[in-house]
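Retry 2 of 3 after timeout on previous attempt. Resubmitting structure tokens to design endpoint.
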């Protein structure tokens, strides 16, 4: 799916997801939390969330990060629009 959008696997959550395994309906929420918590995304960033269901169903949402979460523990140098390279 990333290839079709011109993205490489480094820009997804593949490595993070491999550590946890499939968490059914929680994959996207846990992935988004990881990106926010580690400050790979920050205020001004947009995150594409994609879920694939059985058969041919697919759901997408774009989330705009408005504020730095109080629980974020990553590199404090991330500023608006300068999140990391791992959109979900």
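Retry 2 succeeded. Sequence:
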């Amino acid at each position: 799916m990333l290839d079709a959008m011109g993205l490489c696997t480094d820009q997804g959550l593949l490595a993070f997801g491999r550590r946890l395994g499939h968490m059914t309906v929680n994959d996207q929420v846990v992935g988004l939390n990881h990106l926010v918590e580690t400050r790979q995304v920050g205020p001004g960033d947009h995150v594409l969330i994609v879920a694939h269901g059985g058969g041919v169903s697919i759901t997408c949402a774009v989330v705009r990060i408005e504020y730095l979460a109080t629980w974020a523990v990553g590199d404090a140098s991330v500023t608006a629009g300068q999140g990391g390279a791992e959109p979900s």
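Attempt log closed. Residues 27-37 form the longest helix (11 residues).
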